What we know:
The complex is a heterodimer of chains A (about 210) and B (about 375). With about 210 residues, chain A is an alpha/beta fold. Chain A is about 30% helix and about 25% strand. Chain A is built from 8 helices and 8 strands, in the order αβαβαβαβαβααββαβ. In chain A, strands 3-2-1-4-5-8-6-7 form an 8-stranded mixed β-sheet, sandwiched between helices. In chain A, α3 (about 55-65) links the parallel β2 and β3. The model of chain A has no long low-confidence stretch (mean pLDDT about 90). Chain B has about 375 residues and is α/β, with parallel strands linked by helices. Chain B folds into 2 domains: about 10-185 and about 290-380, Rossmann fold; about 190-285, Rna Polymerase Sigma Factor, Chain: A (Orthogonal Bundle), CATH 1.10.1740. Chain B contains 9 helices and 12 strands. In chain B, α8 links the parallel β11 and β12. Chains A and B meet through α3 and β3 of A and α8, β12 and α9 of B.
Amino acid sequence: xxxxxxxxxxxxxxxLEIARYIEPLSTVLDVGCGDGSLLxxxxxxxxxxxxxxxLSSEGVNKSIAKGLSVIQGNAEKDITYYPDQSxxxxxxxxxxxxxxxxxxxxxxxxxxxxxxIVSFPNFGHWRVRYELGIRGTMPVNKTLDYPWYSTxxxxxxxxxxxxxxCQKMDVHIEKNMAINAKGYQMPFANLIFANLMATQxxxxxxxxxxx
Amino acid sequence: xxxxxxxxxxxxxxxLGQSKPLLLDSGVALDSFDMAYKSWGKINEDKxxxxxxxxALTGDHFVRGINxxxxxxxxxxxxxxxxxxxxxxxxxxxxxxVLGSCAGSTGPSSLNPKTGKTYGLDFPVITxxxxxxxxxxxxxxxxxxxxxxxxxxxxxxxxxxxxxxxxPDRVVTAIPIAATxxxxxxxxxxxxxxxQAIMADPNWDHGGYFDKGKNPHSGLAxxxxxxxxxxxxxxxxxxxxxxxxxxxxxxxxxxxxxFQIESYLRHQGISFVDRFDANSYLYITRAMDYYDLxxxxxxxxxxxxxxxxxxxxxxxxNSDWLYATEESRHIVRSLNAVGARVSFADIDMDKGHDxxxxxxxxxxxxxxxxxxxxxxxxxxxxxx
Lengths: 211, 384
């Protein structure tokens, strides 16, 4: 039942995009790991030593049953208990916008991980701009799946906002990726284009080495 | 001695300590003591499929099958058995009555071989660490080195953590449920109420009741009543009893059990004294009060698990106020701090501390899923 080896076809395309940047045999912390499908895939395909934090009971129960080391908890609180630089990668997929303090979270990701892989819905996407600018309503679509009154997403940003924050926080952007509505990577081209056309931004980040 | 048992198993008693005494934390050496245990399932050739079940304060080794003392079924039949989460078709499951108890292992109600009289208060004060070392001696005696998993709830969970801290190389996986890492002031306070109730009973007679044919039944019953409240949640009590009256339609303006909850607690107290020894209750509650896994590490719990390879699955219940979720979280965070492999779930169940004994699908699924994936990892069972 739950023991079948995870295959690429079993998990969301945008998670596969994240998986591409994970080196085999590395250590990975997935913050907000959901039902553990990305972690399971990484364990099976890349033999990583994977851990997860997840808020929902349903996600945690499924993850543990998959044989993953996942703890139930609040990401922002629990990540502070991990030692410095204890993982090769810390993943925060589609969760940054639900954090109370996204900037502090970013700091924690790079404290705990040597690299952080962060993806988030791009509030600068043209459809969002259309819905807000022309129709005058808060956007609801596949990546932004909730009406305004019940959304867990409290800190939306655009790709440009995110890049600005990284600059302000002295975070080094190792790789920037634009993800389209289907979850596939599209050419990033330049910031203006990506900020308009990408539904998700995906970033590989490291701490800037201070000289 | 046979290590192949049928589902109903058997209880066996082994005398230990004669060649090498058990050195207790108090400094006393226990040079002859009995350990009673029961087992289910078949041990495999390399003895790698052993699961040790640790029982709670008033529990015993009768996990399954008819308990000869109470004549009732075992206390964890829903969790342990063929095709249960702790599957006796797959694993060799053993449960050992704790040192200090009164169901077969040596405790204050046993005969002191030196005097030929019942120990009473001459029994040395013991700790959870002592209980675990005594269990380790029994497993040594049975030729069992590695334990695939140690599992237990409440004081059983405290033993699980002690096992993992003291024998990291022997414990492959550990499943503490509704447990804590040290007794809090509130935990100690409730236990002290119980002990005082026992010691205030004139029949207790400074612990010497046994040889005088007396028994502090009233004191022990009150101790059990007070403790029993801490095992249940307020919402559980309200939904089960509310302010319902017992066998009457109006209050009687007296001190009989007007309310169902009173009648229930009295029943809990009275039925308890038939199966448990008052001095054992004193000794085991004391052992729990002395429990603090961080004590040897300057108050930093993480120190107890430094470098551990054991894989943990920690479970708490969100309605448990005796060993609240936050205590389990502290264990989880301490384990994360030393890079241990740990899973943790706070199970949504409204029955309080005793939830670990009750029917709970989330608990079953997590325990069986965790054991199954770990067993696959160990090559104990095939990938399904």
